[in-house]
């Protein structure tokens, strides 16, 4: 099929590329001429494992092209996906839909009768209705079905998620549009991927509800980790014990410094705002948002506990800046909350991240950036793991220990095991391992049952 993808951000570029890998003819559209020129020359604006090679192979095969000319691309398309950004609006946190509506207006003017318009962007409930209204008004006709097809891609694993999704959600009651969407996703049928056909509004809400629930799981295990530190339990055992329950499952039960990225922070906030407007408050989600914001700030205090006197003049080595591994995305990363607090308290911060330093330089101007792990940790008074990149899992601990000024190791992702780290000579603390920085080895007494 002939597909036009409006927007070459994370969702648009990954989706368009994967559709072309399925065998469809895809043209990706963006108003940024410099980005389009770069893509035509094989330069990918984001880091996503496997994406560069996939773009190159499909571009070489002629199935994937890039343009700034929306009208021409849309006029020739059978299906048009809108995959532009919906950032949180300043002031109220509601999803900013100006780019979605602008794209819809342009598509309305250029599309041929019978073209299917699909909203791929994450949008609040009812957005598809407004997109449809704008298109009908502009065309003075009801000849273009509007469909919701939310994405469920994890940064760092997006290509695998697209090719082997848990499900494909399609929001439309138009039978022809359903047939077209089945044809687009037909290559997934060999994996027996479930296709969920529902109303457009239900489809829009599914995306927000899924992200809110995952954010809730992360927040829950973070609070359990704090409780484990207080009572002398081990959150890894707790997470395994509850995760083996099939009703709960093990995913997203890994404690850390709070969730970040392009989805969870803005989507949970947008869901809260949507619920408020509908006078159906989501108190649980509101609390998740508040707790997560508080947790990021609390992580800096946790690091400072290792230096009860003062942080002034202390050299803190930070490993990992992006919100998660296998991406260069710094949006809402915990590092953006933690590091400024350390600097404000007099610490000198040196950081290393395999992919995120270029973007981080503009966001963290007072940080010194190192070329590698060992340059980062040399002369440090404490080492902090903020992002669990694989190359941080098998470091030369003896070399790191020998080069540090003090052997304080604060593992905010529980990459290492406490006993092994203490045997290696570190004053080690993780999250929820029964202790906090500055009191290594002093586990809280078990809580006694009432007699």
Quick synopsis:
This protein has 17 helices and 14 strands. α12 crosses α13. The radius of gyration is 24 Å and the shape is elongated.
Overview of the molecule:
By secondary structure, the protein is α/β, with parallel strands linked by helices. The protein folds into three domains: about 1-200, NAD(P)-binding Rossmann-like Domain (Rossmann fold, 3-Layer(aba) Sandwich); about 210-290, N-(1-d-carboxylethyl)-l-norvaline Dehydrogenase, domain 2 (Orthogonal Bundle), CATH 1.10.1040.10; about 295-430, Rossmann fold. The protein has 17 helices and 14 strands. The longest helix is centred in the middle third of the chain and has 32 residues, at about 200-230. The N and C termini lie far apart (about 70 Å). The model is unreliable at about 440-450 (pLDDT under 50).
What structural category arises from helix and sheet content?
alpha/beta
The CATH C-level class name of the largest domain: Alpha Beta
Could you give the order of strands across the largest sheet?
Answer: 3-2-1-4-5-6
How many beta-strand segments? 14
Instruction: Kindly estimate the percentage of residues that lie in beta strands according to DSSP.
Output: 5-15%
Look at the structure and give the mean pLDDT: 94
Count of folded domains: 3
CA-to-CA gap between the ends? 71 Å
**Could you say what the CATH topology of the largest domain is called?**
Rossmann fold
- What is the CATH architecture assignment of the largest domain? 3-Layer(aba) Sandwich
Low-confidence stretches: 439-451
Rg for CA atoms: 24 Å
Instruction: Specify the CATH homologous superfamily of the largest domain.
Output: NAD(P)-binding Rossmann-like Domain
Portion in helices: 40-55%
